[in-house]
Specification:
- By secondary structure, the protein is mainly α.
- The protein has a single domain, classed as MetI-like fold, CATH 1.10.3720.
- It is built from 14 helices and two strands.
- 23% of the residues are buried.
- The mean pLDDT is 87.
- One of its GO terms (cellular component) is plasma membrane.
- Belongs to the binding-protein-dependent transport system permease family.
- This is ABC transporter permease.
Length: 291
């Protein structure tokens, strides 16, 4: 029996299309328009072609910020994803008060606003009034995130791990809870080791949530702004000035709209490229085992 096609169904997606166009496509087209024009004032524009893109790509400060950003995001993924998996594996299963309490405690850091997180760590890391800074000083560790570039960079990284590892753990925990008990029963019958259960049952079943976790944490860490801005203000020097802060300085501080628009497009394409690479790697991981 042939299917009957009713083209009037296309009208049902018109509201969605209008919402997406208003919230995403129109702002993006506006940025593209600004990226090829010199703006002198309202109604006073001059077409400059790819001049702003060439200026941004030749900017050494942008190159430095990009390297810092890539290293930071890779460090975030290298710490938060394995740590989140380990926490999820150690969490109690089933429905119990212990499980509920664990889930609530894990979710607490996620409920704190970004600027509050920066303020907490700004105080916590200070050697004079902060618990963390004072503890390191008592242990004989020379630590000052306000004057040492490495200390500042590590503090921002630890702050991010504290704030967002819970998200990875909760996503992995949801993936583990979706595995049918029959898989574990079969593994016990076969005498599978703990590592074999993780490698051939738990890890493949967590593939979907791991894709979400990696993409969310990469995109968010690659666009981080508020926490390091509150904690270090981008310093000392430019050691914690990431791409988003550099973009804000260009657009708001210098009011260089054309260059900032070109930078925004390049920034967006970099995020898109890395997200595609991570998605491809994770989806193809273990493809040979499934054949």
């Amino acid at each position: 029996m042939d299917k009957v096609q009713d083209n009037r169904a296309w009208f049902l997606i018109v509201p969605v299309f209008l919402i997406v166009a208003f919230s995403a496509i129109l702002p993006l087209m506006t940025v593209v328009n600004y990226s090829v024009q010199e703006i002198f004032g309202p109604g006073q524009t001059f077409f400059v072609g790819t001049e702003w893109f060439e200026k941004v790509l030749a900017d050494d400060r942008l190159h430095d910020a990009l390297v810092r950003q890539i290293l930071y995001s890779l460090a975030v993924l290298a710490i938060e994803v394995p740590l989140g998996i380990l926490i999820a594996l150690g969490m109690p299963g089933g429905r119990s008060a212990r499980t509920s309490l664990t889930l609530v405690l894990l979710a607490l850091p996620l409920l704190i606003p970004f600027n509050v997180v920066g303020t907490i760590w700004q105080i916590f890391g200070r050697a004079d009034i902060g618990l963390g800074g004072a503890a390191l000083r008592m242990l004989g560790v020379s630590y000052n995130y306000t004057s040492n570039s490495l200390d500042a960079w590590v503090t921002v990284l630890v702050m991010d791990v504290w704030h967002w590892t819970s998200l990875v753990a909760l996503l992995c925990y949801a993936g583990l809870q979706s595995i049918p008990p029959a898989y574990y029963q079969a593994a016990r019958i076969d005498g599978a080791s703990r590592w074999a259960v993780f490698r051939y049952i738990q890890l493949p079943k967590m593939r979907g949530v791991l894709i979400i976790a990696v993409l969310l944490r990469f995109m968010d860490s690659f666009m981080i702004y508020t926490e390091p801005f509150v904690l270090t203000g981008g310093g000392p020097g430019n050691s914690t000035t990431f791409l988003s802060q550099y973009l804000t300085q260009m657009a708001v501080g210098q009011f260089d709209i054309g260059t900032a628009a070109a930078f925004s497009i390049i920034y967006f394409l970099i995020v898109l490229l890395f997200s595609f690479v991570f998605y491809t790697i994770i989806t193809n991981y273990g493809a040979g085992d499934r054949k």
